[in-house]
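Annex B. Sample input.
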Amino acid sequence: MTLIRSGLRIHKNEVESDIADAFKLFAKWLRVNYDFPIRLPVYLSTKDKVTGRDGEKHISIFFAPYDNGVEPYLSIATGDYLSLVEEDGKQNALFSLLHSLAIGVVKYQKWLSDNKNFDSYVSENDSEALLYKYIEALEEE
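Annex B, continued. Sample output.
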């Protein structure tokens, strides 16, 4: 029998401390407000882009099998953070990176409910709503 782990885990090796802190806080809020019955590991890369199974470069990748007995994962590129800070400021740069996590969480939730059709789901509006919900919660503290 295979043990299915649960939870949301952020792997933040060698990323900027601002990024690590922001992801840690967002993940803490996500764990309180959403269920993660199958573990979702999130790998933060120091590269500008991460390479998908298709060989293409992406800002983030959500990989999930068509089997809910196997853990999915999310990989997010954070290497352009300092240039984003220069262009748009620290808050907007972090918002941009956290948006990738929000997209992944929305796709994960869709995968949980329909692991055969989740990859055709476009999550842009739902992920923005999720991120704004988090920002509102921060402002209420």
